[in-house]
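note to self: dont lose this again. the chain is below, predicted strucutre after it. 557 aa total, dont forget to put it in the shared folder this time
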Amino acid sequence: MADSFRIAGVDQTANILIDRISIEQVLTSAVDTCSFSIKNHKPSEGDEVIVEIDGVRVFGGIVDIVKFSKTTGIHIWDVDCQDYTYQLDRKLVVETYENLTADQIVKDILIKYGQGFTGEHVRPGAPTVQYIVFDYLRPSECFKKLADYCGWDWYVDYYRDVWFLNPATDSSVEPLLVNSLFPLRNLKHTIDTQGLRNRVYVRGGMMLSDPFVYEIKADGAARIWTLPHKPHNLSLTTTSTSARVGIENVDEETQVDYLVNYQEKYVRASSQTATLPSGATLTFTYQYDIDIITMVEDLQSQQGIASVQGGDGVYEHAITNNKLFTVEAAEAAGLADLKAFSNPRVKGSLDTEMPGITPGQLLHIQLPNLGITGIYIAQSVTLTPLTPDQWIYHIEYGGRLLGIPDLLRAVISAQDNVDVNNAARLNKFVYGTESVMVSDQLATTEVPLPFKVETSYDILLDAATISRVTVNATSGCVFLFIPTNPSVALPQVVYRVSTNFGNQYGPWIPAPVGGALEVPSIPGVYVSIQSNTGACRVIQQKKAYGQSWVVCGGVVI
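---
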């Protein structure tokens, strides 16, 4: 049984059913899976699952599917898990890259879209990518596209670290010797020659020829000369004199000596150019389109197959790819195809109890008594428990790891089978937090009011301090005269009235101290009050109804 079987950070080893565990580890970027059954505890989709055997982590991933399996007495759930690729693909990549190495692109994608993942094993030195577009692709799809682009490989390990490497040169594990002393059983080994080829013809697109020289002798009359090819980068000399050549219907005729028509394959003299005399030499130098076709072969494969099957051992194949624009790129594509198919496909499997074998490891099988000798690659490893303390490792292996050196793929680069759209338009949503602050600011301007507001007064008159006050009584009011000390002699208070806004007043009149004085509503009425002796509190009370009627124009309150 596993030393540790943690689900969402909790050790659930005691609840795992031993006979229902299966862990499948596959080669590089393919997704590893784990399935098991658990009692007494129901995991949730998205829970993290980590499995370790003798302290070695053999699986790390996320719960994908949880199904209830009803049995007698206890509850059991069947659980399927995927490795961390499931979490890596949470966001979609919308980016365009140009003239960057593949490893730089991988690191940039991890920084922008791979939160929670590291790139400690992204190897430097990958080929340069001329141009590539990721239009709402998952990070795993982007990494696969880059790996195919340059002949490298990638995967996510059980510690959320992304590996991007050249499998031909980045093999840190020595081949494991499998001989008669190796503990194995249930060995199966088959050879499949279907798809075998060791001579490949590659037909690419078009390329420009080397500079081609074409000479014509003038006859003294001709002003148009036909060329045998559609010219590119054409130059012309007439009897050792360089001529100015323009493009017909593009350049101004008066500015050049001759005009070339690429589609119709001719050159004519401009209207102002004199006809060449008979015997004059016209020397045209230009390039023209030629088909790309080349052939590559694996002589070692041919000799080996000939020794077994007889004949010359040659199996031919043709590749057509119009995105290959140089002979070097076509040869590289052919060599890449030979690397994959020049040897017969080998498939096999074996069971062992020896731990430590992982997908991608080389198996050096030396079993001559069974007719099996060669170096092969472990493509998948499936772990199942035999006893609580013993595991069985079922290994599927295939043809020898051949790899594709980056030199071969670098010359293909953007010409390979990668969809390239130089006019691609990407619509990308950029998420963030925006804040807006709004505040009010009151701008005030002082202006005179269109009406006059009258106020009431409550003032203490005293002959020794404030002895007189003048009040606007236009709207009518009542004055109350209240002595401050009724126990002594009443103060002597007098008042006088003006009906022309205080310009002229009438005689002083004794005020009713201890009583009230009512002033009717008369325009321009001002009242002046004076204390001759003693202190008296004077309160002016406006007549609300009358005041509102005058000031507000008939508002009843």
